[in-house]
Design goal:
The C terminus is likely disordered. The chain is of the alpha+beta class and 203 residues long. The protein folds into two domains: 78 residues, ACT domain (Alpha-Beta Plaits); 102 residues, ACT domain (Alpha-Beta Plaits, 2-Layer Sandwich). Helices cover 23% and strands 41% of the residues. It has four helices and nine strands.
Length: 203
Amino acid sequence: MSMTNQLLVCAIGEDRPGIVAQLTEVVARHGGNLEESRMAILGGEFAAIMLVTVALERVDAFKTELHRLNGDSLNVIVKPTQRLDPNRFKGHSYYDITLNGADHEGIVHKVSALLHERSINIQSMDTDLVNAPETGTPLFRMKAIVAVPKSMGLQTLQEDLRKLGNQENVDITVQSRAEESSSGRELSAISAAVPPSSSRQDH
């Protein structure tokens, strides 16, 4: 069995039909395997991040062909990476954080800064902007998955986010994920609203 390399492929370009087909055609041509991906239209641009595994002897040719797409209204970057150390988040608990409220500057920064100060790792984050059904007021929505060290109690995190929510006039909800933490302990479902907010639809 040949050795493989993991590569991150990032592509950004003006949105049009066929971008995904174009990228994955290169992956297939070089015997690569698309393991994970995130793709979305942001503004008028299409953005894709893909985790691809390619046989070691095919990596150079694979990267060369992807870089040729840079002249076809795409900007493509390829970066080697490696599998996440399974012990990196050992003992952490995983939570969903959702936020809903009137849009204003600095919301994501203040939430992420609070999490950083408490050594909480953001695993993923999605944000979008929608108009309120009746008033048309821009509403900001955010959903994040975070890994919380065992030294940080849930009640303390809830209280910190409650204070931030009050300051920013937004609703914040923290809920444990229905999956095992990296320590192998099954998490029970716990939710805290600051104050209760409506459910969020993923973009």
